[in-house]
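Hi team, as promised in this morning's meeting, here are the two structures we talked about. I've kept the exact order from the run log so nobody has to guess. The first one is mostly here for context; it's the second one we should focus on when we meet again. Sequence first, then the predicted structure tokens.
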Amino acid sequence: MALTIGMIEVIIEFTLARAAFQLRPVLERSGKIFNRCCGGMFAGIGLALPLVTKSRLVIKIRCG
């Protein structure tokens, strides 16, 4: 079982490293745009988190 987990880990890490190597030229050309998009999504998730958490809390209080 440990060998299976180890082999899966090696395959996943190799695949991620290979994908990163192939995406590197694309990210070098459009890295600033990519960073802004990812930053915007991260900020959006951060802003939405209190709203979702608060609404679920209200639902729990009303139901419970």
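And here is the second protein, the one for discussion:
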Amino acid sequence: MQPLSLPRSLRHGCCALLLLALTGPASAEERSIVDDMGHTVRLSAPAERIVSLAPHASEMLFAAGAGDAIVGAVEYTDYPPQAVEIPRVAATSPSTTSAFSRYGRI
């Protein structure tokens, strides 16, 4: 089974939700954010589970003490060592990688 590849707007929205959950106020008030497509996403309580969509985000979550809350990560998430055990939810698309490599950016 191959990892799920997420659309760009969904990835951005998830990253924004992650930042909102980590930096929002500690009160019980509702939190909301508007994603790249103009959809408003509302959380009535702080996020308890996190899907990290970039290896560096996973590293920062572990450094901040939130590693136990990560329930999914992307293909190259491998640091700290316990991050290897997190289930994979997305991978780098071969077509994206080859497109960049044609222009010498990889």
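Starting points for discussion:
The chain has one domain: 8-102.
The chain has a mean pLDDT of 76.
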